[in-house]
Amino acid sequence: MSIYLAAVVIYLILMLLIGVYFAKNSVKNSDDFMVAGRSLPLFVVMGTLLATFVGSGTVVGGASFIYQYGPFAAIFNLSGGIVGAIILYFIAGKIRQVEIYTVPELLERRFGKGALYISSIIIIFAFIGITAYQFTGGAYVLQLTTGIPLEIGAIIICALVIFLTVSGGLFSVAYTDALSAVLIILGFIIGLPFALNAVGGFEGLAVSLPEVNKSWNGGLTFPQLIGYFLPLFLLVLGDQNMYQRFSAAKDPDVARKSTIGFIVGCIFVISLTIMLATTSIVLFPEIAPDTAILSLAIDGVPMVIGLLILCAAVAFIITTATSYLLSASGNIIRDLIQRSSKNEFSESKLLWLNRIIVVVLGVLAYVLGQFFPSVLAIQMYSYTMYGASLTPAILATVMWKGATKAGVLSSMIVGGFATMLWEIGLDRPLGWNSVLFALPLSVLTLIIVSLLTKNKNASADHNQTGQYNL
């Protein structure tokens, strides 16, 4: 265990040094901090897109789903991210041309400050949740390698994430992401033959899997499967982090091409994760589902390969957390503080405000993480809070000229309240994820209210659409 711990610690130190380097040499103003001076090359944008997508949501939450429900149900679940990435390809270049910092800025340009404020609050709630389960995922790594209790491990990961975020901003996040993306793919590819050999190859795996895990649905109903597919699809399609990565690319062509590498990387990582976590079902039938990949790295493959997988996994977890902390901080600074203040802020003050808010949000994320039973549970809540509330509004802004201010505002509010009602107030009736309740209400509200208010707002909306249409 000491060797695994040493490897993880060394890699974390390397990440922190990268953060210090960029803090001293690259981050001079808030533009550098938030969008890396809009200068990232193709390979780095590809890597940071992939690392933002993977993180604890795949290595821990996705692996947990695979372990519980089997590989075929997992294909349906995790493919939501791939489908969303394909759609992103067609709008990535246009988003780079707009040069936004946050998604609420995009909504404000067409629907006004009300859309900006409401969407900012929703994003902050969702992104704190996503950050929270990164802390839990990192804590699992520390528990498996050192025996540290999950609560203490989450505090350690929280502190590391906050330091990395406040030091180098998106510069340090993006470059450590790119390195981690290479490591995780290499580790998974090299480790797969060893894991398969341990279970007797694909034939032995098929024989040894429990019957429920061999079924197409893993014992879930079709609505439950849809409930797992939609949150990831909606998050990737409307994720502010993805839009910020496109804005950080050095030009629209790089932004568009990066999505191709992102799609290919997603297919690789998801396929490898499914196969590796499936072998854990046979090799480790009594482990906690959240640890399916991590346990395999420690006990199911040669030590060198396990070290590679562990280091890349914890790096993905940490850089994903830094991405969402950084993004939520940007919402508070640009969309709430700057827009509501009559005073001008100097670049140095904006930079320090960003860093202070990152610390506050990191602590809140840790606290929130203590209230959810598993990574998968908080993952579905956070994805739905974002996807059901914001993605319909974002797509309407880009694609539907008939959407009105009243329709978009009411859609976001209904989506957010419906998510909290289903998850917290009703405690997930029928075992369905809240997206099955919140998304239809959000979309119907958008359509119905927009149609009812279309004549009243047609002239203003038409003029704004012509000016800001992506």
TrEMBL record:
Top-rank lineage group of the source organism: Bacteria
Membrane topology term: Multi-pass membrane protein
Transmembrane segments: 6-23, 43-66, 72-93, 114-136, 148-171, 178-200, 220-238, 259-284, 304-329, 350-368, 380-400, 407-424, 430-452
Gene3D superfamilies: Sodium/glucose cotransporter
Keyword Acetylation carried by entry: no
A GO term for molecular function: transmembrane transporter activity
PROSITE patterns given in the database record: NA_SOLUT_SYMP_3 (PS50283)
Transport as UniProt keyword: yes
GO CC annotation terms, alphabetical: plasma membrane
Record's keyword terms, sorted: Membrane, Transmembrane, Transmembrane helix, Transport
Subcellular location: Membrane
Family label: Belongs to the sodium:solute symporter (SSF) (TC 2.A.21) family.
Protein known as: Sodium:proline symporter
